[in-house]
Design goal:
14 helices
Amino acid sequence: MKLSPILPLMMSIIDPSLALLHPSHQPRLHLRFTHHTRQTTSYHRHDTSLAYKPSDSDNEGDNNVWTVLANTERWISDTLEKSNRSAASRNTNTAESKPENEKKMHFADEKQSASAAANNPYARKEVTYACETAGELAGVVGGVFRRVREARELGERHGRESLLDKPTTLRQTNVVVIPNCDEISEFRTFDSLVQAINQARRKARDFVIKKEECDDMRKDWVVSINCAHLHPDYGQQTPEETLAAMKQEEEEGEVDVNLQEYKKRRDEARRSPYPSVIVEVQSTPPPDFGSRSPLAQDQQQQQEAPQMKIDADEGVTSEDVKRLEALFGMSAASKKADDAFYDALGDAFGKKQVEAQTPLSVAQHWVLANDPQFDEKTSTFTTSDTRHVDAAFEYCFNTLAMINDPSTPEPKRGQKSYIVLPNFLPTSATSFDRFAGQVSNIIRHMPNVSEKVLISTYHPEHCDGGTRSPVPIFVVTWK
């Protein structure tokens, strides 16, 4: 496909060769479009939704990364243009129907439209496009959580790097297009999967996390992330839903034509050329409650300062100084050389090697001693030092996609995959079990994996001694 003479684009990409990698590698391709033409791309109308297809001159397939992103960007631009034309026509009709004295205030309408454009992320050019080339659904879910993690890190980094005297709000929108996954070609499957992902993100708010890990962000900046979805068949009802809607209209005895037209236009506006996920991040500075009086500030400083009571009758004498000098002199004289320390270790252990115990090795030894179903020939161990929920979801589903990759041998019945997470929810077994429950809930909405795996956990805080492991372990068992 020739880009330069036909489709001038402004693109920033890590490496163009990444478009040819295997889908399981999940390349991150980010593009910014500033201009487009329609000379080589035609579209046809199908069920009142626009579905763009490349012309015959394009030798590449429809799922080429560049074609997918260009079609999506063009569809969004045309949809917004159509919406703006409709809004302009409504404003014109409203202005013509107003009295003469109200028409003179037309500049207020212009300000209102300008403020509406300022609140539109697509009008502010704060949109990035990414193509998720994974063809396996578990890899797609892992890619969605990766975009959520990157959005959170972007908001947190903006809060750290922003000027304290003049903080600004960050708003960014990332459109993730998923063209190669056949499992989400049905709207109901894709819709239920995205709803399960959002439910898991909401449930994560109740997890017990150490305060020192997120105190700074809770006190200062607020990072909020929204995850929505688009689909070529968005809003398409099943026969059961259509029958239920007809029965409801029959019971009510009246039909709201305006409401039906609104729902129809809303669904059409979300019918994108390819299944897509929109990740929006907003990083908001801490609220300013105004300056306080100097007296209140002095009182707070006195409360925060350490309270030390010194008795005037008891002071530091020369005898105390001599005792301290003697104490420090004895500790310095009793310090031995490093060679003597290692010599003592050699005498104690002989020729044995002293090696540090990592969380992975500790988990392996514990599983070997406590899991009767462990098979060293088929079982696998992986580890991650993540502390955040979105990163843990990403790692678990990427591991699942790696094992269930069509290019690799099919997992055997009873095969186990142990995912060691030593720093993730180490003090709350309940939160860790709820995390595993949300993973199971997402897997239930994945047709090709839902009947293949079983999720279980080991945790240091479990009441049952048989599952009380030294570190948190997430277990995937293949049925």
